[in-house]
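User: Structure please.
Assistant: Input sequence and predicted structure:
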Amino acid sequence: MVKIGNIDLGTFPLLLAPMEDVSDPPFRSLCKENGADVVYTEFISSEGLIRNAAKSIQKLDIYEKERPVGIQIFGANLNSMMRSVEIVEKTKPDIIDINFGCPVKKVVCKGAGAGILKDIPKMVKLTEHIVKHTKIPVTVKTRLGWDHNSIKILEVAERLQDVGCAAISIHGRTRAQMYKGDADWSYISQVKNNQRMYIPVFGNGDVNTPERAIEMRDRYGLDGAMIGRASIGNPWFFNHVKHFINTKKHLAPPTLTQRVKIARRHLEMSIKWKGPILGVLETRRHYANYFKGYPNFKPYRKQMVTLNCPKAIYALFDEVLEKYSLQKAI
């Protein structure tokens, strides 16, 4: 049984990765409904939180139905991180996660995210102080190292565990790789199979099929899988992985009616959460995958990502259902 603190996550939990402009409350809720065991927020700037920046504060929103939910923060200044933890605690998340893996230049150049991989003692110090500053379980998400010549993840994981980190999620790429090339899970396996390690070790990167999730469990021995890009516009992915793990058979893909229904709900929740403008804009990135594989769908998808009026998009959903049901009847 896998646990983060006192939170029981089952035997091989599936975690929704924190993704900027993706892992918002509406999408997290849909993933939770469809089999995700733990969901994480978008990463939140500690500097933004302590300055009461509207965008950072809004990212603290969580729904009760999401639990267990982790709020992820990033930063490089110890004082700012301590103060941001105090702000995060008021939202009462189940987990506080520290981002030591974001490879984006604007984050890295400030020594935050994956930038801290150049200063492991600071990484450990930040983690230790945060753990001591809160009673909420603290987890870490990181990468293998800054580049291939500086992979020290075995040592890093041990040191983070020793200062109280409750679990670690490791993306199987270096910062230099960004998202290119294949994720190397062998290093993550070395962390898990290190006899000194006793906290959960989750793998991240390239978990894009149910078979890959099973490989992460059976070949690499990891405690769970953190799923990112494969879930975008595909919240069903978690249930499909679980079904395959339990039966070794693939679930049938969602029907068009199911796809339209969940795309509509996603848009409705996004509008309710962020308003009609941002709600429409931030749902667009999901449509390509919601309707992936349907023949002659490009004109509809183009409209979905260009229409600004919610009523027009809902009408388009209805038109899609009507057209494809007629085609099926013929």
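The chain has a mean pLDDT of 92.
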